[in-house]
Specification:
CATH architecture of one domain: Sandwich
Low-confidence stretches: 1-18, 452-460
CATH superfamily of one domain: Immunoglobulins
Strand order of the largest sheet: 2-3-6-9-13-17-21-25-29-32-35
Structural class: mainly beta
Oligomer: single chain
C-alpha cells in the first residue's frame, strides 16, 4: 500500500453528479431488468432473496452485488442467490465488457447449465468476481463453475464448489487465452467426467493462484487439482493442493508451472508431466504434510489448532507457513497456506488517533466519530468506552458502551461536544478491549469554544461527505462533500491499520457542494477510510477498491 499514488482535482459543481444505485426489487423487479436500465458506472444493489433468472451484463461496466457491497458483511452472500434453474444457459454472462471492469460481488450463483461456464461465463471482458459462492453448476464442455475466455478476470475470496463438466474440462474454473488472478479462494469438490482439470483447467493462459485451497477435486483423465496446456504459465503460492485425484497437477506439453510455499500432497512427485519440455519450478517453502482440515469429508476445509496457542502437534502445518514476504493474515500474523486462514487473535485499529473540535460556540452542539476496526481474526470485544475526566463537555454517544466487532468489520462511536463556557477543553476517550497487545487505546480529545451564543446559520447547513460514487470502484471514483461556509479543508486516505496513504486534496473552498475526482490506479484492492477535515470538524467514510 505504501506504493499507492493518488491524484485528485477539486471541482466546484452546482449540484451532484454521480452514478445511480438501482435496487432490486425496490426499483426493478428482477436483476436483469435493473441491468437493462443501468448505464456503465451504475450499481445494481440486490436485496436478499432467491432470484430464478439468468442474467447478462449486456456489455456494461457495472456493479451487480448484494448488500455486502454497502455493508461489507459476508453473511449476505448465502442469502442473496441467483438460481439458473438449469435452463441450458450460464447463470451469469459477462461478455464484451472492455476498459472498466464489470463487478459481480457478494452473490451465490447456482443451478446453471451451459456449454461453457455453467455458473459464470466471462468472454472478451475485464471482470472482477468477489465474495461469491459458485455452487452446483454444470458445463457440457468447459468450466463447470466459471469459464474465462479471452478475458482478464480477478477472482477474490470466492467459493467454487460442487461444479462439474460432462464432456470437457475444468470442473471448477476454465481459462482460455486469459489472464487470471485467483486469491483467497476455495476451489474444491469439483469434478470432470471425461477430459482434464477437475479443479482448474488452463489453456494458453497465465493464472496467478495465491492463498487458495484446491482440494478434493477429481477427473477421469489428468490433473485432479490443476491441468495446464498450450503455452500456459501458472504461478502457485501459499496454496493447499490436497486430495485431488488422480494427480495434484498435470503439465501438458511445454508449459510452465511455479510452486512455492504450498502444501502439495505427494510433494514434487505429484506434479506430473509426460513431456520433457515441460518446466516445473519447485521453489522453497513447499511441504507435504496433512493440512489438518476440520472435516474434509463433511466439507469443512478450515485449518485447525486444537491446543491453540500451544505450539504442538495439534497445530496445522499450514498455519504461519506461507511466504514470509507476502501479505500477512488479517490478524497480523505470518500468512497461512490455503484459502482459510486460522484466526489467532483480535487486533484493534482506531482512527483518528485524536479528535479536535474547532470553531465551536457556547451552547452549540457538535459531533465527531471514532472508527474502530477489528483487523484481527477473532471477535473483538469492546468492554468499555469512557471519557476521562467525566466532568467535561465531551460525552460518548451513539455506538458507545460494550460492542462485539467481527473480523474486518468497522464500528463507529460518536463523541458529542457541548461547551458551557468560552474555553479550551481537553479529555481522553479510553477504549478497553480483549486485544492482547493493545488492551487499552486512548484517543486524545480537545475542543475550543468562542463566547458567542449559537444562532441559526444561513446557507448550506452540513459539513459532510455526501457520497462516493461508484463505491466499490476499480481505478476512479468521485467524492462528493459539502461545507457550510468558506474554510480550508483536507481530504486524506487511510488504510484500516491507520496508515496514512496521502492527501488527495486540500485548500480553501467556498460554502456548497464540491466534487473530487479520485484516481486510485496502482492501489491495492481493499477497504480504505476517506477523511474530510476542516474548521467544521471531521467526517469519515468507507471506500472499497476492487481490482
Amino acid at each position: 500500500m505504501s506504493d499507492a499514488r493518488f491524484v485528485a482535482f477539486l471541482i466546484l459543481l452546482p449540484g451532484l453528479l454521480f452514478a445511480r444505485i438501482i435496487e432490486v426489487p425496490g426499483d426493478q423487479g428482477t436483476i436483469q431488468q435493473a441491468i437493462h436500465t443501468a448505464e456503465s458506472g451504475d450499481t445494481v444493489l440486490v436485496h436478499p432473496g432467491v432470484y430464478v433468472e439468468n442474467i447478462d451484463f449486456e456489455g456494461k461496466s457495472i456493479v451487480v452485488g448484494s448488500l455486502f457491497v454497502t455493508t461489507g458483511d459476508p453473511h449476505w452472500v448465502d442469502s442473496t442467490v441467483i438460481d439458473g434453474d438449469r435452463t441450458g444457459e450460464s447463470v451469469v454472462v459477462i461478455r464484451d465488457v472492455g476498459g472498466e471492469d464489470a463487478f459481480l460481488i457478494g452473490m451465490t450463483v447456482r443451478n446453471g447449465m451451459a456449454q461453457f461456464g455453467g455458473g459464470i461465463e466471462c468472454n472478451g471482458s475485464v471482470a472482477t468476481i468477489e465474495r461469491c459462492a459458485v455452487r452446483g453448476n454444470t458445463a457440457i464442455q468447459y468450466g463447470g463453475g466459471i469459464a474465462c475466455i479471452e478475458s482478464a478476470v480477478f477472482i477474490n475470496h470466492c467459493t467454487v464448489r460442487d461444479n462439474e463438466t460432462d464432456n470437457g474440462g475444468g470442473g471448477g474454473v476454465y481459462c482460455d487465452g486469459s489472464t487470471l488472478a485467483i486469491l483467497y479462494s476455495d476451489i474444491s469438490y469439483n469434478s470432470t467426467d471425461i477430459i482434464d482439470g477437475g479443479g482448474i483447467y488452463s489453456r494458453d493462459s497465465n493464472p496467478y493462484i495465491t492463498n487458495c485451497t484446491i482440494a478434493m477435486n477429481s477427473v477421469d483423465a489428468h490433473g485432479g487439482g490443476i491441468f495446464c496446456r498450450e503455452a500456459s504459465d501458472i504461478i502457485v503460492t501459499n496454496t493447499i493442493l490436497w486430495g485431488n485425484l488422480p494427480q495434484q497437477v498435470w503439465i501438458w506439453e511445454d508449459n510452465r508451472v511455479t510452486v512455492g510455499y504450498s502444501d502439495v500432497e505427494g510433494g514434487e512427485g505429484e506434479v506430473v508431466t509426460d513431456n520433457p519440455e515441460a518446466y516445473l519450478r519447485w521453489q522453497e517453502g513447499n511441504i507435504d504434510l496433512p493440512p489438518r482440515f476440520a472435516d474434509a469429508e463433511g466439507g469443512d476445509l478450515h485449518l485447525t489448532w486444537a491446543n491453540f496457542p500451544v505450539d504442538d502437534r495439534t497445530k496445522s502445518p499450514c498455519i504461519d507457513s506461507g511466504d514470509p514476504d507476502s501479505f500477512g493474515d488479517p490478524d497480523l500474523t505470518r500468512a497461512d497456506m490455503g484459502g482459510f486462514y486460522f484466526p489467532q487473535r483480535p487486533a484493534i485499529s482506531v482512527q483518528p488517533e485524536a479528535l479536535e473540535f474547532t470553531g465551536g460556540r457556547v451552547g452549540q452542539m457538535d459531533w465527531l466519530e471514532v472508527n474502530i476496526v477489528n483487523a484481527g481474526g477473532e471477535a473483538l470485544r469492546i468492554a468499555s468506552q469512557t471519557i476521562i475526566p467525566e466532568e467535561s463537555p465531551f460525552v460518548v454517544g451513539h455506538g458507545g458502551g460494550e460492542v462485539d466487532i467481527r473480523p474486518d468489520e468497522l464500528h463507529q462511536t460518536w463523541v458529542r461536544f457541548f461547551p458551557p463556557n468560552a474555553d479550551l477543553y481537553r479529555a481522553v476517550l479510553r477504549i478497553e478491549s480483549n486485544d492482547i497487545d493493545r488492551p487499552v487505546v486512548e484517543v486524545d480529545i480537545s475542543g475550543s469554544a468562542l463566547g458567542i451564543p449559537s444562532r441559526p446559520p444561513s446557507g448550506p447547513k452540513r459539513f459532510a461527505i455526501r457520497g462516493i460514487h461508484p463505491n466499490p470502484f476499480n481505478d476512479r471514483t468521485q467524492v462528493v462533500f459539502e461545507v457550510p461556509f468558506r474554510q480550508e479543508v483536507s481530504l486524506e486516505i487511510f488504510d484500516l491499520s491507520g496508515g496514512k496513504l496521502g492527501e488527495t486534496a486540500g485548500g480553501f473552498v467556498g460554502a456548497g457542494v464540491h466534487v473530487v475526482d479520485f484516481n486510485a490506479e496502482g492501489t491495492a484492492a481493499g477497504v480504505y477510510l476517506l477523511s474530510l477535515s476542516g474548521m467544521s470538524g471531521r467526517r469519515v467514510a468507507k471506500m472499497v477498491v476492487v481490482k
